TrEMBL record:
A biological-process GO annotation: heme O biosynthetic process
Family, similarity comment: Belongs to the UbiA prenyltransferase family. Protoheme IX farnesyltransferase subfamily.
Subunit structure: Interacts with CtaA.
EC number(s) reported in the record: 2.5.1.141
Pathway: Porphyrin-containing compound metabolism; heme O biosynthesis; heme O from protoheme: step 1/1
Protein's name according to its UniProt entry: Protoheme IX farnesyltransferase
Function: Converts heme B (protoheme IX) to heme O by substitution of the vinyl group on carbon 2 of heme B porphyrin ring with a hydroxyethyl farnesyl side group.
The keyword Membrane belongs to this UniProt entry's keyword annotation: yes
One GO term describing the cellular component: plasma membrane
TM annotation in the entry: 28-45, 51-73, 94-114, 120-140, 222-238, 244-262, 283-304
Record keywords, A-Z: Cell membrane, Heme biosynthesis, Membrane, Transferase, Transmembrane, Transmembrane helix
Amino acid sequence: MTDATQNIGTTAGEGQFGDYWALLKPRVMSLVVFTAAVGVFVAPVSVHPFIAMVSILFIALGGGASGALNMWYDHDIDTIMKRTANRPVPSGKVAPGEALTLGLWLSFISVTMLGLASNWVAAGLLAFTIFFYAVVYTMWLKRWTPQNIVIGGAAGAFPPMIGWAVATGGVSLESVLLFCLVFMWTPPHFWALALFMNNDYTNAGVPMLTVTHGKRETRKQIFIYAVLLAPLAIGAAFTSIGGWIYLTAALYLNAKFVWGAWKLWQREEADAEADIYTAEKAYFRFSLVYLFASFSALLLQAVWVKAGMGAW
């Protein structure tokens, strides 16, 4: 029995409120909340502010449920990885069973309440998202294929589509584009992280692309996905949710995203190791800025149009 495992067994149950809050992955939840809120607001159907607020709350709870279930199942490899060793379960502050119970209850509450508060299409999409992240990604893809992030990225891409469904009761081209924007963004984002956290994934036996195909191939794939993302992101400007504000932002952000990916691809591994992956860390940070700025531009565009200013 490892020290980390002993720690789980002897100190679990001493968790404070902050430890249970951490189970919900609040940083990830912030992305879920924001993209879902944008999905609600940019939709062509107005939603009562109270309905919108509680719907976003339940979508956030669903995201938190996914995080708790992920931490329950992954606590064995989380103890090995430096990036995750201090999470509530591997650190021994919360028992694995408690994380599982919390995740299951939050899943039930969030899906049921979203269905009652808005509609059952949105609730069904949330239920599928939780299932996809907790079962398809966490229990299957993550440990079995280097395509884990590519396919698993769908889980993080559903929130804006769910938000759209809250408002409209369905799915449309625009909500699919919102999904695709996050879906295609996910691999470059996480592969950039994997470039400078590769030892963690190697030690834990997680078949990230950097582990199975090497960092050179990973750099190439980051560039390919950045290039594929650009026309989807820019193309959204020419739908009902787009306009000149979003188009301006999309052109700048995608040019910078693709150019940064190109520079990562051309970078020699020896240079990256020499400066402790400075460029890779910067690209990872910018990828977060990219997504928040893209959705902020969509939100600003919607505010502009709803104020009667016109898309173009």
